[in-house]
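Researcher: Quick test of sequence recovery. Tokens follow.
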């Protein structure tokens, strides 16, 4: 779980980073699964609305969507239901990883911009998701999903 102060520090640390465009790794990839690879898989899973794959292996997720904050991490099954309820009525046009940062050896985050159309409309909308990871062993485990206004 990433605390509010830590999250703010990560966002501020990225202030000089490119906020639009191709995925960018800010540190060399460690052995095993790189954070950039994890972010790209997450964007692909979101694009496909494959939320079970998105949260697979997660020890629990803090989910903050649309201003509502959870009081405790959700079990992966609960997170899948929450994400389906949130995004199920939309058709994803594209999802782009715009920033990838490792905060330290065990934590990192990615910014993913999603462009979507709500079913029944033709207007494109854009939202920014911040995904937080914790490194465990040779891979990154998703531990937080936040929608930023």
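Model:
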């Amino acid at each position: 779980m990433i605390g509010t102060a830590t999250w703010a520090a990560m966002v501020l640390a990225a202030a000089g980073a490119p906020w639009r465009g191709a995925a960018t790794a800010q540190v060399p990839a460690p052995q095993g699964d790189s954070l950039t690879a994890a972010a790209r898989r997450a964007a692909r899973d979101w694009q496909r609305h494959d939320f079970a794959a998105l949260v697979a292996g997660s020890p629990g997720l803090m989910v903050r969507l649309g201003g509502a904050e959870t009081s405790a991490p959700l079990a992966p099954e609960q997170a899948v239901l929450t994400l389906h309820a949130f995004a199920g009525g939309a058709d994803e046009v594209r999802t782009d990883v715009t920033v990838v940062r490792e905060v330290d050896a065990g934590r990192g985050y990615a910014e993913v911009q999603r462009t979507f159309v709500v079913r029944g409309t033709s207007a494109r909308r854009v939202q920014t998701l911040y995904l937080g990871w914790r490194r465990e062993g040779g891979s990154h485990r998703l531990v937080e999903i936040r929608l930023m206004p």
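Residues 1-31 have pLDDT under 50 and may be disordered.
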